[in-house]
Amino acid sequence: MAELPATRPVAVLFANRVVACSAIARAEGVRRGSRRREAQARCPDLFLAQEDPDRDARLFEPVVAAVAAAVPGVEVLRPGLVVLGARGAARFFGSEEAAAERLVDAVAAVGVEAQIGIADELSTAVLAARRAAIVPAGAGPRFLAPLPVSELAVEPSLAAPERADLVDLLHRLGLRLVGDFAALSPAEVASRFGADAVRAHRCARAEPERPPSARRPPPDLGVEYRCDPPIERVDAAAFAGRLLATRLHAALAAAGLACTRLSVSAETAAGETLARIWRCAEPLTPEGTADRVRWQLDGWLTRRDGARPTAPVTVLRLEPVEVVAAGALQLGLWGGVGAEDERARRALIRVQGLLGGQAVRVGVLSGGRGPAERITMVALGDELVPAADPAQPWPGRLPEPAPAVILLNRPLVRLESADGAPVEITDRGLFDAAPALLRWGSRQWRLTGWAGPWPVDERWWASDSDAAPAGRAAPAGRAARAQVQLDGAPPDVRVLLLIYHDEIWRAEGLYD
């Protein structure tokens, strides 16, 4: 996206929803959480990019360096969001407003727009930054009170994944504003909701989020790796990051601790020292630690602003800056960092023992042109090898987005033109008439839009009686796919993916 003009609105998508957007896109009505089609309808010139944490961390590193050069003590919450203490910066620059202006200028110098929020507490400052606001001392609860309660779950680096369920519950209880939730007493929240609700309630009341027991870890928990040969490539950095993450978490587990703030530092052959602190909403897992080390080294090694290291990295060091007791963690069945993950796996293996090896299978991204072809189901415990290489180009592949649900039985449907005639695909791969109506069993809907058709140009040499290779879902002979949008259909079948073969249309997938 570096070649895009600064005036082009940009949005980042994940799971077909907007997770971030530029100020210009927000001015056009694009909002975080909007669906792809809604965002494009509000802003036709919108440039859409898929979420890529590696890319985001690499491109964000010059911004972090610019902020750190102006004010020391920068902590990275996630790529795109940093926090720092305002007291020292305000004293040095003369006021909080002057410090904010200086930081905006520093970030603008690297070609990036920035919004700054200042408040007594970290979570309040993050919400203030979304509005480019400076909250006076002691006015945090008054600033938060009129905000919608969904703001408590909008920042993933400060909210646990279950925060969205809490927001939905509060909505159903009639607590629509942050102030409504803050009006409850701590005892009422603690007795009726979970631990994350207590943290959200402290955020809503602008109370300190960190527990008093948070402490700096013992100095012997840091781990170090002397790179031989020195690291100057990202793939080597990823290997070193995984190795160090394993060592660090072994030491933390032996001490009964989990890390919530991590320092990543490096030394180069030229004597240069690089350091960055990462903060996380929940304790880091070994995989999360390895990701952050890779992101950070990728950002350092690939910088293009002239500030990249002049020599390869010779020493890599990880130090936990802040830890919590591992025994106090409330781990979920899925994605836990302790014994719960292994317990879930043992339960699934038990199911395999009772019902057979193929009773529990996991999906692996595969190569192919149709949506069903791009999923290879592998029995739990087997090597996760796809039926086809997803890295291959696959010309003629169904364009993004992929359908949310794949209909393996492919029910029959009928696509008709405005005069009631069936719509078919010509030898040139086009509709022989504009589609206007879709019939599915006894139901029928008029079309409000359609895309395609896209010819399925594979296995054209095979006859219809030939069996398709394992894992291949597309039929032999001439076929095509199309997307149609239905008027008045239920939300779960409003947009369909159709496939045409042997003069018959079938429903192959549903879009959310």
Q: Supply the number of helical segments.
A: 14
By DSSP, the count of extended strands is: 18
Largest sheet: 6 strands, mixed
Radius of gyration: 27 Å
Largest sheet strand order: 5-4-8-7-9-6
Query: Could you say which structural class the secondary elements and strand pairing correspond to?
Result: alpha+beta
User: What share of residues is helical?
Assistant: 25-40%
Anisotropy-based shape? globular
Average pLDDT taken over every residue: 79
Stretches where pLDDT is under 50 for at least 5 consecutive residues are: 211-215, 328-339, 464-474
Taken as a percent bin, the fraction of beta residues is 15-25%
- Terminus-to-terminus distance: 27 Å
Task: Please provide a written account of the structure.
The chain has 512 residues and is α+β, with helices and mostly antiparallel strands. 29% of the residues lie in helices and 23% in strands. The protein contains 14 helices and 18 strands. The strands form four sheets. The chain has a six-stranded mixed sheet, covered by helices on one side. A six-stranded antiparallel barrel has the order 13-14-15-16-17-18. Helix 3 (53-70) packs across helix 13 (286-301) and helix 4 (86-93) crosses helix 5 (96-108). The longest helix is centred in the middle third of the chain and has 21 residues, at 234-254. It is globular and about 75 Å long. 31% of the residues are buried. Mean pLDDT is 79; it is low at 211-215, 328-339 and 464-474.
